[in-house]
Design brief:
The longest helix has 14 residues, at about 50-65. The strands form four sheets. A six-stranded mixed beta sheet has the order 3-6-7-8-9-10. A two-stranded antiparallel ribbon has the order 1-2. Strand 8 (about 140-145) and strand 9 form a beta hairpin. It has a single domain, classed as tt1808, chain A, CATH 3.90.1570.10. Helix content is about 20%, strand content about 30%. The chain is of the alpha+beta class. The protein is built from four helices and twelve strands.
Length: about 190
């Protein structure tokens, strides 16, 4: 489905949509069920289609993480996570407690969120990383699909992250969320 998108005029007020508004628009056919987008603080933001480097890195991460997950954790792939009445996101990967229904998962429930970025790198490192911190996600990785450099964000606060560090493709990535996991992105197929 081809959909026309536009950029909002800076400084002018816009109507903020809610998750319920978006669901009604999908039910009414205003938004297509196959359209890829997120709702960021009331604004509908299109999500770019995935490209080969993005899919290869994402698939490699799935294969690397899944075998090391403790039994009480779940690995979501492209799951819709409803953070608030005006915000839902679809991170490439997320780790959360298995006893939670996805509809009940909120920011602090997310142990690890991973965004694999190519065309959206600046958005994922900027506004989206800030959004993830403000909703209390415990840890966020933004993986550059082209270079495989990973920006690791930890220590969420209302104003950002307490720690941000870059991990080169040949260095070990690890997370307290999955203690048995260590990966080098240079080792991914």
């Amino acid at each position: 489905m081809n959909v026309a998108w536009t950029r909002a005029a800076d400084g002018l007020p816009r109507r903020a949509f809610t998750v319920d508004d978006v669901r009604r628009m999908i039910d009414a056919g205003v938004l297509g069920r196959d359209e890829k987008f997120e709702l960021i603080e009331g604004e509908i933001v299109p999500v770019s289609p995935s490209h080969d480097p993005h899919e290869r890195v994402k698939s490699g991460l799935i294969l690397a993480i899944a075998p090391h997950l403790p039994q009480d954790l779940w690995l979501g792939v492209g799951s819709s996570v409803y953070l608030a009445g005006r915000t839902f996101v679809e991170p490439d990967l997320c780790v959360y407690e298995q006893n939670l229904a996805l509809a009940d998962v909120r920011g602090p429930d997310l142990q690890l969120v991973i965004e694999v970025a190519d065309t959206t790198l600046s958005f994922d490192l900027g506004q989206k990383a800030q959004l993830y911190a403000s909703y209390g996600m415990r840890e966020s990785w933004v993986v550059n699909a082209s270079t495989r450099v990973t920006t690791v964000h930890t220590g969420p606060t209302a104003t950002g992250w307490a720690s941000i560090r870059e991990v080169q493709p040949g260095e070990l990535l690890y997370t307290p969320a999955v203690p048995a996991l260590t990966i080098r992105l240079s080792d991914l197929r």
